[in-house]
Specification:
Rossmann fold; 192 residues; 7 strands; 5 helices; seven-stranded mixed β-sheet; globular; alpha/beta; single chain
Length: 192
Amino acid sequence: MKFRVRLRGTFTGNPGWSLVKAILAPFNLMHPQGCSNHHCLKDREKFIGNIWECACGTGKMSEIIKKNGYEVISSDLVDRGYGESNIDFLKSEKKVDNIITNPPFKLGQDFVLHGLKLVKNKLAIFNKLNFLEGIRRKEKIFNQNKLKNVYVFSRRVSFVKEGQTKSAGGLIAFAWFVFDVNYNGKPTIDWI
């Protein structure tokens, strides 16, 4: 129960339209400043098989992914009116082809470590760019050599917190971290 209370406090709710467009670029949505072959994740990453959005919140990412022809499994620990609720991703043993999610940032390391055990192909995590920092993450995650690509957002992304309509200013740098369990090497860093 303690875990759920912590998650409720970290839920960013409905992202601003710019974030929806930026996060969902792999599914034919535009980058906030327009989309070209050099600015869309969709042109860089292909996902084969089903996709689990394991921190689906209100379902914005899941719906866009579905509209682009993917089989999507949507769940969240807390019932936010979308997907299957009361599913603790960090305790799940469900095997899937891919995971694409925007987890609570302070649980990013846990989501990556657990997600790598569950996917057959790729794990894409939206997180703060400073997720690259840290001795513990280097030892536990990055030394596995499964991080294939990091796509840094060229422009800052704004969020709309749950219950609010106005987005907070984009003060933090974000990126997509794409892990591939079939990869063994150092990551490539690029910008979108």
